[in-house]
Amino acid sequence: MRIKLDRTLCDGFGICARHAPEYFSLDDWGYAVLVGDGIIPEQDRADVQRALLDCPVHAILEIAERRPDDPPQPTLEEPDLDNLRTDADAAQWDMTR
């Protein structure tokens, strides 16, 4: 498991530091700081997963690992803006204006 902490989202609840103090500490203002490189060994995964799930602002993110033999992710098709139909949405637009 690999995690990342988005400090711009942290509101300083400190729940992560209570669940997994080996991986989260609090700075002088009470905001979370990730301890280490974010790689979590299997034996500590439950505590870090609990911290991730209990974070009220979702500041802790799990980073999915991709392997070289994984199939490529499908590409998203861009909409054809020149031929975009808007007739079906006209009634909805009239009601929301």
TrEMBL record:
Keyword Hydrolase part of the UniProt annotation: no
Alphabetical UniProt keywords: 3Fe-4S, Electron transport, Iron, Iron-sulfur, Metal-binding, Transport
Region (Disordered): 63-97
One MF term in the entry's GO annotations: 3 iron, 4 sulfur cluster binding
Cofactor(s) required, per the database record: [3Fe-4S] cluster
InterPro entries referenced in this protein's UniProt entry, alphabetically: Fe-S_cluster_ET
UniProt name for this protein: Ferredoxin
